[in-house]
Amino acid sequence: MISDFMLVVTSVLLFGTVSALFLYYRRIMTLRQEYDRAKGVIDDIVVSVDSQFRRQKDRVLFVAQKMENALLENKKVVKKVEEYEERLTDITKLMDGAPQIEEKFSGQIKEMRNEVAGIKEAQDKVMKKLVEIEKIKQETYVPEVKIEGEKTAPEIREKIGLTREHSARLMKKLYKDGYLERDTHKMPYVYRLKEELKKILKKREASVS
User: Fold this and answer.
1) Which of 138, 140, 168, 141 minimizes the C-alpha distance to 154?
2) What is the pLDDT of residues 164-203, one digit of tens each?
3) Whether residue 96 sits in one domain with residue 23
4) Rounded distance, CA 197 to CA 194, Å?
5) Nearest residue to 170 (alpha-carbon basis) of 199, 147, 195, 200
6) How far is residue 3's CA from residue 8's CA, in Å, rounded to a whole number?
7) Domain carrying residue 166
8) Last residue of some domain: 100, 129, 158?
9) How many domains does the chain have?
């Protein structure tokens, strides 16, 4: 009786142990499967994070390269600005010195203008002298003409004692220069002295007497 009881107890204990081991094994397998699934998820997360990290790294490198290029361009621009500032400074110095240059040469320019004005004035005086000399040359013939009142060309030629050709040239010149008046309504032409020429003759006669 006791041995049967012990056998039953042993069998129950053995069955309980085996059942517990089986349940424990199933639990372990379930946990292992969950672990594997969790590990897969973690691996996927790690891969995803790694990919995102790489993309972020590439983006950071791209941005860094752009920033470096921008810095280089900025340095070039700064250099150009400095060059323009130097040129502007030089131009400003020249502009500041312009009044001094103008003041320095203004005296010479004024002197040159005065010289030019003097030359023009002297030229005008020379021209006046030439006109006066020409008048005097013409007047040297006048005392010999001795026209009193109105005279024809033949009468004048007899007075001055010149040839017909010379007297014709003289009368033509005196008439052209405005010393004689000519009446073309009579033939031959009649000449008479202008009032201006009479005044000149009177002055010459007075100076001679």
Assistant:
1) 168
2) 787 777 777 777 777 777 777 878 878 777 776 666 666 6
3) yes
4) 5
5) 147
6) 9
7) 140-208
8) 129
9) 2
